[in-house]
Protein 1
Amino acid sequence: MDVDKVDFLHEPFDCAVLLSQGDFPEEWESTELFAEWLIPVCAPEALSEQPWDLPRLQAAELLHPTPDRRDWRQWLQAMGLAEQVPLKGGQVFDTLELGMVAAARGYGVSMGDLVMVAEDVAQGRLGLPWRSAVTSGCSYYLVWPKARRGQERFQRLRDYLLADLAAMQLPDVERVVDSLR
């Protein structure tokens, strides 16, 4: 699993939000913000056409938010579709966010994160062609060095983010845990 990294000694960051399984150095504070749930996303207009079924997914332009296509691979595997939907072709991006933006603009179907897409789905900027989210086994964490000055600022940021996330209305979807993880 490729996870995010930060080097607080050599990079100009006071804190960071990282995708990880939670294994951080002892000298860091860390708080889990939310678990990653992968879900396909598309332009809202793509929902008004024919229904999304296996043949339509097979014919869709898949957008890959990771160069190794792991997000799609993991979702398809958990849904029992890994052998039926080809992962070749399609645009490749560096981040989930870029894939979601391309999907919203109608370039194809990308993988997104349930929390990250919640507001865009609610506002009609993104659609959910397949209403099943799959856990990736990772979470997003707020991290910062324990020795960094201004600890109370980081704690206020943490409290704000946790309160904001707790108040968030997530789309109503089926949550699938990949039994092979």
Protein 2
Amino acid sequence: MRIDPYSLELFISVVEEGSIARAAQRHHIAASALSRRMADLEAAVGMPLLIRSHGGVAVTEAGREALARAQSLHAQLQTFAREVQSLGDQVAGVVRLYANASAIVGFLPERLKAFQAAYPLVQIELTEAVSEEVVRACVEDRADVGVSASSATPAALESWHFADDPLMVVLPPDHELVAMQTLDFADVLRFPLVALQAGGSLDRLIHERAAAQRASLKVAVTVNSFDAQCRMVEAGLGIGVVPISAASAFAGSRGFVRRPLGDAWAVERSLQVHALRKSSRLRAVQALIDLLTAKAK
């Protein structure tokens, strides 16, 4: 029985996509070729792994077990390749970077461009996630490096300052709070709010601070991105609390006004770089940590 790693990778994609056609698009191969690969894989293991229908594919009981084993083997092979690549004379390989939205919008593009210029043989696999998931991915070694707004991190991680990212309030131009140059959170609580991504660190922080003032938030609408949040503010649906990184990313818009949030907890908000504590790291991983934290040293 011969089973090649590429077929296992394709099998994982088929299950994740729920479709041979979509998995084929993901890997830029013909659907017929991928279908043959799956048939060969099933022949190699001696039992069906997929249930095919016009609506897509599902896994059999054997397919569920095969998926778990395939994912484990795929992760091991990736680790093998990354560690071998790190032994060469040049800094090369793949670095798995998880980051929250404000880091991706406000700070990472320029720093990753500089990293790419310094280390052209290193590939960055960037995944956007809420801060809690960034920390979890680092602890579980699914991420080599993480950037989050989480202020408390597990002892298993090392953390470094990455960037100051205080909070601002974005307002429609005709809103009555525009007359004030700096706002307190108590001012924000008086008005309907365009909230961001329930469950994220910013959402939790705002709810905690509202509870500390024994006040309830007047949420007009909840969205999942900073651009959607600002668009809702432009339309007059409410006001929004956003990191300065996100507010700066929309500097060209005249549809809303920015005002700093003066509360100490909002001014002191910052982003951190995280990595699992290890006696030694792949050179590409350490190079990225060094570059991301250079301005903090």
Protein 3
Amino acid sequence: MKDQDSIFFKNFSLMLGFLILLTIVLAIVGYEMHHSLIDSNDMTKDRSAIAKSIQSVSQVNTGEAIVAVADTAAEEVTVAFDGTLDGKTIYDNVCMACHNTGAAGAPKLEAAAWTERMAVGIDGLVTSAIAGKGAMPPRGGRADLSDEQMKAVVEFMTAGF
């Protein structure tokens, strides 16, 4: 019985020693790799490389804030909502995200979704669109849209019903 205990203790001690040695070797290798990467990238002096590597790959156009950042987008928005374009263009740029998917209960462009809503007439729908209804903010979230533009959008959306 003593021989079995001594054999177990010897094997356990060897395994424990090996694991401790492996841990030390891996810690040294990791330490060296970490410092060699930092030195090669020189990120300790220039944090702009870190900021660039974690920068978002996309932006959501929520209005004026992003328009000021993107020069080409600023030109398009100015033209798109200057009152000269039709309801389809405004729908494609403002309303489509919710009304094509039905997000937050927005009615899709299907006759079944608009049957009851059409009972108030175009003027009633325009009034609702201007004031906002349910999850939809006033003027679809674009305060720069005029009443005429809102009417053009509603007429476009209800043209087939």
Protein 4
Amino acid sequence: MTTTPGTTAVEDRFYEGRWAASDPTRGSLRNWLVKKERFFLRWLRGRSGRLLDLGCGGGWAWLASGRVAVGVDVSWTSLRAAARLYRGAVQARWDALPFRDGSFDTVFSSDVLGHVPLDEKDAVWAELRRILRPGGLTLHYVEADSADPLMRLAKRSPDLYARHVVAPEGHIGMETPAATLARFRRCGFEPVDEQAVYRLLMYLPRATLLFDNEYRQRSQALDLLARIAGLLQRTRLTTLAGNVALSALMEVADRVLPASWANGVLVAYRKPSATSATAPSHPVE
């Protein structure tokens, strides 16, 4: 585990000790049921070489399967856990990564880029492109600023939205799904797969996290949602059944509801090589 010059500037009390547990799964049933994990498994299957896990937390065993994985995070607790899975674990700023140009065949992140402040995003995207080899693949789940009815309702109380939607997970840099995709393209990445996901629907624990609080006194609809989520999570069996049912409903919702209702985007982009043609695009509808 290593550090880089200026590390003390990136030590952040908010992140220290959060998301520090390692994920030991390597293509489990749960990985295939969770939409974003299924996306990553599909794109990483059979892919070797060097991979950077940006904002790695405690690391994911699957990422180290058949490839050389390196993790970057700001939390020492997370990096100690990730170091047990990955070839390297580095504390560094995301806008000043301590790697040579073209160091990685794959760059990966999940639930990370929505934490980057808006005025720092272009610098971070530039670093992602710099460290990726020509022709390399970058894969991300990026949290999005959704316009779905639940979020529009939540935003009617700006104080609660800041306290219970943005603050608990540090989502200080969320953009609309369309703006996120446009940023990748503007920063020089070729689209391979772009999906606006989690349109309106969310898993049970997330509904509880966001709305089982003061929102219940402000909105009857959010109170009802929190009550239902709580009832379904009374046992492990009902929690599992509820989340499996939601996974199936998400597949339908992500096909028929507006892309602006997405709470995140799943993306695969390629760094152009000098001789590459434009990669095939799968635009969000």
